[in-house]
Amino acid sequence: MCGIVGYIGNRNIADTLIDGLKRLEYRGYDSAGIAVIVKKKIISIKAVGKVSALSAKITPAIRKELSSSKFGIAHTRWATHGAPSERNAHPHLDEKGRFAVVHNGIIENYASLKERLISQGHKFVSETDTEVLAHLIDDCYEGDLLQAVAAALKKVEGTFGIAVISSENPGQIITARRGSPIVIGIGTGETIVASDISAIVSYTDKVIYLNDNDIALVEKDNVDLRNIDNVPVTREIAHINWDPGAAEKGGYEHFMLKEIFEQPEAIANSIRGRLDEEQGTGALSGLNLTPQDLATINRIIIAACGTSLHAGMVGEYYFEDLADIPTEVEQAAEFRYRNPIIHPGTMIIAISQSGETADTLAAVREAKNKGAIVAGICNVVGSTIPRETGRGIYLHAGPEIGVASTKAFTCQVATLLMMALKFGRARRLSRQNGIELVADIHRIPELVKKVLAKSKDIAKIAKKYANAHDFFFIGRGYLYPVAIEGALKLKEISYVHAEGYHAAELKHGPIALLDEKVPVLALANNIPGKDKIIGNMQECKARKAPVIALATEGDNEIRRHAEDIIWIPECSSETAPIPSVVALQLLAYYIAKERGCPIDQPRNLAKSVTVE
Ligand code: M6R
Fold first, then answer.
1. 296: how many CB neighbours lie within 10 A of its CB?
2. Any catalytic annotation for residue 463?
3. What does the buried/exposed string (b/e) look like for 188-197 if buried means 16 or more CB atoms within 10 Å of the residue's CB?
4. Helical pair 480-494 and 306-323, crossing angle rounded to 10 deg
């Protein structure tokens, strides 16, 4: 949610920190700041709003003054404790101005710590939980910055990813994590600390991911890694295979549009090398499960949040229909707190684009504690969930920068389908059925291309309905989760109130809201359930609601039931969610554009939700 950057090396410090913050902008934030040490004094500059507002405050004179320094820290904040303001923006300093701290996460016992520090004479200026860290470090400092930070962290409860500098220890950044990611980029004669690899990829491809309770002393040419008890630890240097250009807009007006159009390639990357055409099954070695292991799985629980949760709902149909395994989908926060029942043979699948979502990660830990087989389906390589599950599947969708998740969803669904195919083949699915499904999966990128080719038609429909205040999306079977996902896309980027419902549920209450001003989008593709949804569309029309249908090309009958139609290529029930959701992503995008919304950074939202 918040973003951290720290840099130590020979580049211009202000430019480098601002560049790093800009690369984290997509995560969502409300204020930003930097701290740099010049002539043994910490200079901190903060601004409310965009990184450009902070950048504007760094005048040529300030930039020149800061340029004598070769290290500093920076932060983008997403407010939790205290409103977005300069006072509450990070970095936070102790009252003597010797220590500057940037922090992601939440210090849960900050109120009692603050009270004690105030009684000892410390003076606070902000309403944040983070400021206690700066005062605590000051309290613990006896000349060794790493020891002081470690001692301070031992007193705090909650989660943190932090970076700290001190006017007493030039040339050093201390960074640590518990529950909030920190990555250290190892360059040549320079080191970068960040909460997210997107701030690192343009400098180096060599990174170290900190584990929980790791603390590091970072210098220009050296990283000294320990655990919080001061015991040296070794962490592997990983290589990032992101093309730095993948995190640029590449000529598109928004990251979201770029990512929608990248889907044929992203899905092709997700499925490449993972299908066995001969045996009609999935080849998913990352799951690390033998056919014997697969035969013992008697229940699946999928835990996830937001869009990943909706992908999980499609997965539930796949595992039950194809593999005969009873499957439930749980909002990850609910899973972690309601003491789930896990018996031998229960498998938990955690789905997360970022691999860092706090509730999904906590669900993984709860499942592991209860002895379940736990696998992750994640996009960001090296993120915490795949590292903690130790088994799973990477999406290989490439970086997703737009806050509204698009390509991650379609790759998650394709991955769940390959997984269910593999599980099904180890249980009840015939080789012939498997071969047919493999062929279907290979066709998905082409299906998506066909929908993308209709973007202009979808934009026209979007223009017609852009002023609606409320919207309903209805679907059945495999397309029910797609209705919910379509509504989520619309509400998060266009701020139009939208609800996704099972088509049969509408008349159990929500139909009371329908009138000529409330459009209903019906997923009426030519797959089982279509006849029933036509009945539901009639019920909406009878209440004067304008009906927009998603329908299968050539299905002319549908024209009698809808005012507007978005045509989807003919495909199987199993693959239908993917081209259908792409159409809904485009509809949401064009409606948001018509309404002049900040599509890549919708208000109040963050790309990666690392707090509960
Ligand atoms: O990174 P994750 O997939 O775990 O994120 C889960 C949700 O926060 C995320 O899908 C969110 O709902 C998106 N804004 C949806 O577009």
1. 12
2. no
3. eebbbbbbbb
4. 170
Residue of 2, 140, 378, 411 marked catalytic:
2
Categorize the per-residue pLDDT at 423 as very low, low, confident or very high, splitting at 50, 70 and 90. very high
Which spans in 407-524 are helix H? 407-425, 431-452, 455-465, 480-494
On the question of a cis peptide bond just before residue 510, with omega within 30 degrees of 0, the verdict is no
Q: Is 433 exposed, middle or buried (0-12, 13-18, 19+ CB in 10 A)?
A: middle
Indicate if ligand 1 lies below 6 Å from the C-beta of 259.
no
Contact between 438 and 420 (Cβ < 8 Å): no
Whether the CB of 101 sits within 6 Å of ligand 1: no
Which numbered atom of ligand 1 lies nearest the CA of 405?
A: 16
Q: Which atom of ligand 1 is nearest to the CA of 306?
A: 12
Rounding to the nearest 10 degrees, give the CA dihedral for residues 292, 293, 294, 299: 130
**Structure confidence at residue 245 (pLDDT):** 67
Helix (H) or strand (E) holding 320, with range, is: helix 306-323
From 22, 407, 491, 607, the catalytic residue: 607
Is the torsion defined by CA of 542, 546, 551, 553 positive or negative? positive
Yes or no: say if 164 and 218 are a contact pair by the CB < 8 Å rule.
no
Rounded distance between C-alpha atoms, residue 343 and residue 350, angstroms: 17
Task: Report the separation in Å between the CA atom of 377 and the middle of ligand 1, taken as the mean of its atom positions.
Answer: 13
Express each pLDDT in 196-255 by its tens digit: 888 998 899 999 999 999 999 999 999 999 999 999 999 989 888 777 667 678 889 999
Half-sphere CA count of 99, side-chain side, radius 13 A: 29
The pTM assigned to this predicted structure is 0.82
Q: How far apart are the first and last CA of the chain?
A: 11
Residues 314 and 505: their CA atoms lie apart, in Å, by 18
In this predicted structure, the answer to whether residue 536 has a pLDDT above a threshold of 90 is yes
Domains and CATH numbers, the chain: 3-240 (3.60.20.10), 249-442 (3.40.50.10490), 449-603 (3.40.50.10490)
Say how many Å lie between the CA of residue 364 and the centre of ligand 1: 16
The residue nearest atom 7 of ligand 1, judged by CA position, is: 306
Examine the residue annotation and report whether 540 is marked as an active-site residue of this protein.
no
By alpha-carbon position, which residue is closest to atom 11 of ligand 1? 306
Residue 263 pLDDT: 98
Strands 547-552 and 238-239 come out as: unpaired
Using CA atoms, how far residue 8 sits from 12, 71, 73, 194, 570, in Å, is 10, 4, 9, 12, 55
352 within ligand 1 shell (Cβ under 6 A): yes
Rounded to the nearest 5°, which phi and psi values hold at 357? -60, 125
How far apart, in whole angstroms, are the C-alpha atoms of residue 341 and residue 30?
40
Residue ranges of alpha helices (H) inside 357-396 are 358-369, 384-389
